[in-house]
Amino acid sequence: MDPDRYGPSWQRNALAPGFLGALALIVAQLLLETEWFGTLRFVIAVLALIVGWFAFQARQWWWVPVMLAIAVAWNPVLPFDIAGPVWVGAHWVTALAMLTAAALIKAPRDDDRG
Is the C-alpha dihedral spanning 38, 98, 13, 74 positive or negative? Predict the structure, then answer.
């Protein structure tokens, strides 16, 4: 049986949530002083946890604490009172981290094609 016949032997489960998280972080900068920012904090925290879970499943443990830190820093339940250029810079650095994780986290494909 030809292994290349059915596509790649790796899957990137964190790709979509990582890209969506980076997009949410960029959009959140535009809405920092609005009521929508709380909703975006929730979205960012959840997407970071999803990417962290996919990293855990792919056994790429080094991404798990990074994603947990993002989820804690952007949590809407007990929000940190950070403002100014540090907070804007944190959005950009975190968006870059989410994009990097999305591109690098991959796991072997589990197909039962027999």
Answer: negative
pLDDT digits (tens, 9 = 90+) for 61-94: 999 999 999 999 999 888 777 778 888 899 999 9
Is-contact 107 58, C-beta < 8 A? yes
CB atoms within 10 A of CB 87: 15
Instruction: Give CA angle at 86 (18, 55), nearest 5°.
Output: 25
Q: For residue 11, give the amino acid letter.
A: Q
Burial of 45 (0-12, 13-18, 19+ CB in 10 A): buried
- Distance CA(105)–CA(21), nearest Å, equals 15
Closest CA to 51 of 36, 65, 34, 37: 65
- Place 33 in a pLDDT band, splitting at 50, 70 and 90: confident
